[in-house]
Amino acid sequence: MAEADPLKLYNNKRDFTRTKEPAGKLGRSGGNGFIVQKHDATRLHFDFRLEMDGVLKSWAVTKGPSLDPADKRLAVRTEDHPLSYASFEGTIPKGEYGGGTVMLWDEGTWEPVPGKSAKDLEKGHLHFILHGQRMKGEWLLIRLKPRPGEKRENWLLRKIEDGYAGAADDLVSRELTSIRSGRTMGQIAADAPPISLKGKRGKSFDAAMMEAVKATPSRTPPRKRASGKPPAFRAPQLATLVDTVPTGNGWIHEIKYDGYRCLVSVAGKRVQIFTRTGLDWTNRFSSLAAEVAALDLPPALIDGEVVAMGPDGNPDFSTLQRVLKGEDRGALHLFAFDLLELAGEDLTALPTVARKERLSTLIGDGAAHIHFADHVVGAGEKLYNAMCGAGQEGIISKRADAPYRGARTRNWLKVKCTRRQEFVIAGWTPSGASGRALRNILLAQHGEDGLVYAGKVGTGFNARNSESLLQLLKARARKAPAVAVPRSESRGAQWVRPDLVAEIAFAEFTGDNVVRHGSFLGLREDKAAKEVRREKPMAAPEIESDITISNRDRLIFPEAKVTKGQLADYYAAAGAIMLPWIAHRPISLVRCPQGRAKKCFFQKHDSGSFGDHVKHIPIREKDGDEEDYLYIDDIDGLLACVQMGTIEFHGWGSRVEDVERPDRLIFDLDPDEGLDFEDVKKAAGDIRWTLEDIGLTSFPMLSGGKGVHVVVPLTPQAQWPQVKDFADRFSRALAAAEPDRFTATMSKAKRKGRIFIDWLRNQRGATAVLPYVVRARENAPVAVPVTWEELEDIESAGAFTIADVDQLIERANSRDLRGWGEARQTLPDY
C-alpha cells in the first residue's frame, strides 16, 4: 500500500529554518520530467530523479552516470523529493542532512520504452528513454536483491547501447557546469558569480589562495580574436580506390559515409557549406548550418560528409536524395573528419591524426546532427568486414602522419564493399510497361579521347525518382549521341546532353568495359560531368620508411632484453597514437646511445645531424638570442631520433605554430621515497576534483616512472606568464591546505613523506614526457594515458611496457580513451 504522504520522510529529515531546500508538497501527477543534481556531501555523487506520481523518485548514483553500456553504476534509492526540488541549486548547511553543494547538472523529460510502463518500477525494473541536455537515449534501472540485514534499496543504472553510448568518463569528467546557471561547483559553493576556490577546502586553503591572488602579476593582453571571417573554400583531398585494406599501424581507418562530401566554413554564427567542387549549398543544408552556428565556433574550415539515415539507421544515399528533394522528412547529419584551418591558422601541414585531435577538441560532443567521425588505428580489415556485413559502402584508410593535400593522393585510400562509381548519362530508352516511363539509362565516362560508352542500367528506378529524372532528361534532349554506342545498345534510345552525373552500383565491368548488374542510386549534383572518369582499383600501398636503423641488435634495455631495433619497431607501431601529442611541438630528447644503463643526456638543439625528418624552429631565449629547437611531424621523424640513440621524448606545453600560448597544463605528482602508488592515485583524484570545482576537465597519465601526470588541456589563449602563475598558485594552495601531504617546493628536504606537486612543467621552455613515450628505466616502461576510473585499479606508474604495444594501440582505439586529453577550456579568472 502506498504511503499516505510520500514526502513525509523528506520533510522529517530537514530543518527548513536552516536549509534553503523547498518544503515537501505533493505536486500534480502526469508530468514526465527528470533532473540530475551533482551533490558534494559526505561523498560526491549524482542524484538522479524521475518525475512520477507527483514526486521525484530519487537515486544517489555514487560515481555518476556512465555512457558505457558495460558499466553498471550503483544507484542507492533515497526518499522521494518534491517536484519543486527540480529547481534547487545551492548549498545545504553543514550539519544538515545532505550538507554540501548541489548543482543542477541535467534536466529534460523521460518516457518508458515502447511496450513498457512507469509501473514497472514497482517490479524492480525500469527501461526508459531520456531526452536531457546531457543524458540521452535508452537507460535501465534494475533493483538488486537485498542482502540479509540490508536496509537500503540498491539499484543499478546502466546505459543501453545506442547512438548516445560512449565512454565511462564522457559525462561526469567533461560536463562541469550547471545547466541552469552555468556555474561550477566552486562558484556555487562560494555563492558568487566569479569562479573561486574558496568555500570548501578549509581556512588554510582560502588564505593561501588570497595571498596568491594578491601576488598575481598583471595579466598579459588578451589574444586578439581571428578576423572573424569564415575561411575561403579550398580544394578537398580525394581518396584513391584500392582493392585491399592497407595493413600496418601507420594507417587510420574511418567509415566511408554514403553521402555528399562538403567543406564547412564557419566563424561564430556565420556558416557556409560548400560541395566538393565549391558550390555554395548552405541553403540546401540549412538545418546543419543552423546547428553549426549554434556551436559558436572560432573561424574554421571543416571537412566532412553530409548523410541521411535509411530505414535501417545507416547512411543511405537514396534517402539523402529524397530528403534534399523534400520527398522524405528525415534529418540530415554531418560527420566531420578533418580540420584544415582554425582561428586563422593553416593546419594542413599537420599529420592526419593531429588534425583530427584538434577537430575533436573543437566540436566536442557536437550537436544532435553534428558528429565527429571516429577512426581506428590499424585494425582496418576488422572495420571493413563490419561495414560490409552491415551493408555499408566501405572504409577510408588514411596515412596517420600525412599532411592534407587538395588533390587525389595515395595517402587517402578508399576500399569499397560493393563497386560504385559515377557515370555521365548519355541517353535513355522509354519503357513500354504500364506505369513505368523509363526503361534504361545509357552511361558513359570520360577517357583519354573523350566520352567512352559504359553500358546501360535498368534497375533502381521507382515512381518517385524516375518521374523527376525523366523531366531532367527531356530538358537535355539532343538529336545525336555524344558518345559512340554499339548499334545493338542504341535501339530506341533518346539522346541527351551529357551533363548529368549518376551514382551506379554494379557487380563488375565486363570484358567489353560495360557495367554488369548495375543499379541506379541517384544523381550526383555535387560533381561535374567533366570530372567523371573510370576508377580502377590499385594495389594498396605499403608504408616504407626512409629511415634505416643501424645496430638493430644492440641491447638498449639489458634487463628486458630489448634491442635498438625493437625500440624502433615500437615507435613505428605506436607512432599513429603518439603523433597527436608529439607532432609540431618543440621537443627535448633523452639520448642513450649505449643503452639506458649507460650515460644518457638531454638534447633540445640540433646542428642538422638528425636528417631532414627532424625539423627545426627558431625560438627566442632569455638572453634575446634565437636557438633552433627540434620538432617532428611524422613517424619517420620519431625513427630518425631513435636511430640517433633517443629513448625518451619530452615536449613543451605549446606547439610550434604559437610557442607562446600553451595548450595544456601538467601537474606532475612526484612521491617521496616510502610513499606507495596508492597515495599518488588518491592525490591525483583530489586534484581532479579541485580542478572540476573551478570548471577544468583533467586527464590522468601514468608517467612510466613513479608518479602520475594530471593533464589539463587548454585552448591556446593565455600566455606563459599567466599559465605559470595559475599553476604556481593552484599548487601552493593545495600544499597550504594539506601541508602534511603535499609540497609545492622542489627542495628535497621539504619532500619528506610528501608528494611534490611539480608545477614547474608549466613555464616557458620546460618539458614533460609525452603520451606513449618509452622511459629510460628498468624493463622499458611506457607513459600511458588512462581513464580516471581505471586508475583506481592500476598498481604502478610503470604498469605498461614496450611489450604491450598491441594492447596500447587497442586501448587507444577503445571507447574509453576516445577524446582523452581533449577539451575546449580556458583558465578561469580569479
Automatic annotation (TrEMBL):
Catalysed reactions listed for this entry: ATP + (deoxyribonucleotide)n-3'-hydroxyl + 5'-phospho-(deoxyribonucleotide)m = (deoxyribonucleotide)n+m + AMP + diphosphate
Q: Tell me the CDD domains matching this sequence.
A: Adenylation_DNA_ligase_LigD_LigC, OBF_DNA_ligase_LigD, PaeLigD_Pol_like
Q: What is its EC number?
A: 6.5.1.1
Q: Does the keyword Metal-binding apply?
A: yes
Supply one GO molecular-function term.
DNA binding
Q: Which cofactor does it need?
A: Mn(2+)
What region holds the ATP-dependent DNA ligase family profile domain?
325-416
One GO biological-process annotation of the entry reads:
DNA repair
Q: Which PROSITE patterns match?
A: DNA_LIGASE_A3
Pfam families the UniProt entry points to: DNA_ligase_A_C (PF04679), DNA_ligase_A_M (PF01068), LigD_N (PF13298), LigD_Prim-Pol (PF21686)
Superkingdom:
Bacteria
Keywords on record: ATP-binding, DNA damage, DNA recombination, DNA repair, DNA-binding, DNA-directed DNA polymerase, Exonuclease, Hydrolase, Ligase, Manganese, Metal-binding, Multifunctional enzyme, Nuclease, Nucleotide-binding, Nucleotidyltransferase, Transferase
Give a yes or no for keyword S-adenosyl-L-methionine in this entry.
Answer: no
The record's listing under InterPro entries reads: DNA_ligase_ATP-dep_C, DNA_ligase_ATP-dep_cent, LigD_ligase_dom, LigD_PE_domain, LigD_pol_dom, NA-bd_OB-fold, NHEJ_ligase_prk, NHEJ_LigD
SUPFAM superfamilies referenced in this protein's UniProt entry, alphabetically: DNA ligase/mRNA capping enzyme, catalytic domain (SSF56091), Nucleic acid-binding proteins (SSF50249)
Instruction: Output the NCBIfam families linked to this UniProt entry.
Output: LigD_PE_dom, ligD_pol, NHEJ_ligase_lig, NHEJ_ligase_prk, PRK05972.1
Q: What is this protein called?
A: DNA ligase (ATP)
The top of its lineage is: Bacteria, Pseudomonadati, Pseudomonadota, Alphaproteobacteria, Sphingomonadales
